[in-house]
Design a protein that fits this description.
The complex is a heterodimer.
Chain A: E1 7-11, H1 15-25, E2 29-35, E3 41-46, E4 54-58, H2 69-81, E5 84-90, H3 94-103, E6 108-115, E7 118-124, E8 129-136
Parallel strand pairs in A: 1-4, 5-8
Antiparallel strand pairs in A: 2-3, 3-4, 6-7, 7-8
Chain B: H1 5-21, H2 28-35, H3 39-50, H4 54-72, H5 77-83, H6 89-100, H7 104-120, H8 128-133
Helix pairs in contact in B: 1-2, 2-3, 4-7
The chains are: A alpha/beta, B mainly alpha.
Chain lengths: ~140, ~150
Amino acid sequence: MITKLSHITFFVLDQDKAYDFYVNTLGFTVNTDAKMPNGFRWLTVCPPQQPDLEIALLPPLAGGMSYDEETRNAFKVLLEKGALGAGVFDTPDCRATYAELKDKGVTFKSEPKEQFYGTEAVMADGQGNWFSMTQRKEG
Amino acid sequence: MSIAPEVYKKIVTAKVYIDDNFRESLDLDKLSREACLSRYHFHRLFTRIYKVTPHQYLTQKRIGQARRFLAGTNLTITEICNHVGFESIGSFSLLFKKEIGAAPTSYRDEAWRREEQAIRQPRSFIPNCFFENCGLDTPAAGEPAEKSNSQ
């Protein structure tokens, strides 16, 4: 029986910039940020109200011995295009969070719109991924 | 009833003001002035938008910064308490334990232990699939090559 998701990977172009976006701009908490002796950096962050979900921010080129060059390059191309859609983040108020993040320089692919399930905007993390930011309809 | 865009702007301005100034002494009077709203309307609208009261949000910001200081610096508990805007060690410790479930000192000890373990025994908490897919199977110098005992 599977009960919940504990770890997930977001591939990113640059871990330092990803740290800045997820921690300083979005307000996620750092679960672990540790550099291994071989240079691999294990960086995981958690959404503010979800401390048991670790999001590993990993560049596809880090370590990468099991990815052949073609695969690594394919990842890089997709990330540079911003083509990877990584998921949906919940927000208590989409329009307020949109206004705040827009002021902080976050790029949005679409501004808040009413959908049948709530209010949704689509933002990019600047690292190759886009997300829905959704305020679910109450009731 | 929907909130007008200009009112959103006011509440967001006050929320960002907390983000930038949580180290200072902030109260409802000061925050509602930042938002150019009455205390009552500011409190009501802030709580409606963010699902926490302004005071609860301020406490969360302070606790969050305290966690970062505890895990990532050598500052004393008293210094951290002052840096994040709490007025007394007593209230800091009490609120920290209530929010996080551990006293500041215990939280720091655990954070430092985990960080050290991450370097010395990464297999003890990084899922094995990441080792395989990130090419970490070859132990670096000094790293024990034991199998993961978790995940």
